Structure to design on (380 residues):
C-alpha cells in the first residue's frame, strides 16, 4: 500500500459526516501528522464540533495554500463494504466514505505536506495547508470562516475537488435569494374576503419567467450559462384557509467576471418591481452570495500546474468547467490565484461504494509537489 493510501485509510476511519459535521476527531488526526512533520499547526472553530486545521511551514511571501474539506455526507444505502474502512475493490481502486469527496484529496495533500517537510521545507515564502469542515452543507464555519477572519489569506490557492486530476480555473458565482409574499388570511369558503399570498407569488414568478428568462438565455461565457432556479416553496396554514404568506428560494448562477452578486440582486428587484404587485406585499432578500472567478493561463499558479501535470504524468493538462461551486468561492474576490484540482471522479462522490484509484492519488501528490518545487522551491 502506498503511503498516500495509508493516509487515506486513517482519514476514512474517522467519521466526519454532515450533519452534524463533526470534524474534531479527523482534525486531531491531521494535526498530529502535521505537527510530527514539523509544521506550525493550529485548530480553529467558530461552531462547536466543526474544527478546521491550519498548518504552515516557511515564512514571508508568496503564500501558497492548499485547502480541502474533510467532512462527508452520511453513507447512503447500498454500501457493499464498511464505509468507514478503506477497502481495496478492483483495478487498484479503494472504497470508503469520502474516498473521492474529499478525503482522497486530503490524503494527497497530507502526503505532499510530509514530502515538503522531508525536503527541508520551502526555499522561499510560506506553504499553508488547511483542512476544513462545513463544506457539505454549504455552511459558514469552514473555509468561509477562515477567509473572513484572515486565517486563510493566500496569494495562490489550490482548492481540492474530485476533478480526476484535471484543472479547473474558473467558476460561476452563486446567489441565493429569498422571495416572500404576504396577503390576508380568510376562510376558504369565501376567498374574496382574503388576499391569497400564494396566488401573488404565482404572479410574481410568472412575471419573473417572462422578463428575466429571455434576458438570461443569451448570457453565456465560454461553457458557462447564466441561470435561475426556483429551489423551494412554502406557504399556507391549511387547505381551508386563504394563505397569508408564501416563501420561495431562488438560486442564480452568475457568469465569472460578467455578473456580480450586487448586480444580480438589483436586477431581480427591478424585474419584480415591474410585476405591478402592491408595495409592501412582497420582498426579496439576499441569503448568501459569492462572485465567480476566471484565472488566466499565464498566471504563475495555472502555468505551474500545467507544467507539473506534463512532467509528473507525461500528458498535457486537461481543463474542465465545473457545474457546481466549490469553497474557492469564499476567496473569489480576494485577488488570490486559484486552481481547483484533485483525484477521483466527481460522479463517484456522494454515491454508495465511492472509490478512488490509487494511481490517481499518487499522481495528484506528485503533480502538487512539482507545483511547490517550481513556485517556492525546496531546501533539499
Amino acid at each position: 500500500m502506498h503511503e498516500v493510501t495509508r493516509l487515506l485509510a486513517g482519514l476514512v476511519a474517522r467519521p466526519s459526516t454532515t450533519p452534524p459535521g463533526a470534524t474534531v476527531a479527523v482534525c486531531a488526526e491531521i494535526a498530529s501528522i502535521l505537527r510530527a512533520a514539523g509544521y506550525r499547526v493550529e485548530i480553529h472553530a467558530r461552531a462547536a464540533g466543526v474544527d478546521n486545521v491550519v498548518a504552515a511551514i516557511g515564512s514571508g511571501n508568496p503564500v501558497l495554500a492548499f485547502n480541502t474539506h474533510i467532512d462527508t455526507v452520511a453513507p447512503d444505502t447500498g454500501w457493499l463494504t464498511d464505509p468507514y474502512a478503506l477497502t481495496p475493490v478492483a483495478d487498484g481502486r479503494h472504497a470508503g466514505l469520502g474516498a473521492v469527496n474529499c478525503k482522497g484529496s486530503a490524503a494527497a495533500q497530507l502526503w505532499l505536506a510530509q514530502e515538503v517537510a522531508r525536503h527541508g521545507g520551502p526555499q522561499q515564502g510560506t506553504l499553508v495547508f488547511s483542512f476544513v469542515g462545513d463544506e457539505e452543507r454549504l455552511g459558514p464555519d469552514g473555509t468561509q470562516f477562515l477567509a473572513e477572519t484572515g486565517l486563510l489569506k493566500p496569494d495562490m490557492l489550490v482548492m481540492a475537488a474530485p476533478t480526476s486530476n484535471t484543472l479547473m480555473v474558473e467558476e460561476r458565482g452563486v446567489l441565493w435569494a429569498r422571495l416572500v409574499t404576504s396577503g390576508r388570511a380568510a376562510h376558504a369558503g369565501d376567498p374574496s374576503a382574503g388576499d391569497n399570498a400564494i396566488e401573488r407569488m404565482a404572479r410574481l414568478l410568472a412575471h419573473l419567467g417572462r422578463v428575466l428568462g429571455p434576458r438570461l438565455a443569451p448570457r453565456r461565457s465560454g461553457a458557462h450559462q447564466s441561470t435561475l432556479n426556483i429551489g423551494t416553496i412554502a406557504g399556507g396554514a391549511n387547505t381551508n384557509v386563504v394563505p397569508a404568506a408564501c416563501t420561495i428560494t431562488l438560486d442564480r448562477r452568475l457568469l465569472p467576471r460578467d455578473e456580480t452578486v450586487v448586480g444580480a440582486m438589483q436586477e431581480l428587484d427591478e424585474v419584480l418591481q415591474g410585476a405591478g404587485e402592491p408595495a409592501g406585499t412582497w420582498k426579496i432578500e439576499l441569503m448568501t452570495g459569492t462572485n465567480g472567478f476566471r484565472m488566466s493561463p499565464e498566471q504563475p499558479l495555472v502555468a505551474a500546474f500545467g507544467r507539473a501535470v506534463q512532467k509528473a504524468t507525461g500528458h498535457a493538462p486537461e481543463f474542465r468547467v465545473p457545474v457546481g461551486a466549490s469553497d474557492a468561492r469564499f476567496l473569489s474576490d480576494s485577488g488570490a490565484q486559484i486552481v481547483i484540482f484533485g483525484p477521483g471522479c466527481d460522479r463517484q462522490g456522494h454515491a454508495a461504494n465511492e472509490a478512488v484509484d490509487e494511481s490517481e492519488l499518487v499522481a495528484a501528490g506528485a503533480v502538487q509537489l512539482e507545483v511547490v518545487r517550481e513556485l517556492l522551491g525546496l531546501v533539499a
Q: What stands out?
A: The CA atoms of residues 372 and 378 lie 8 Å apart.
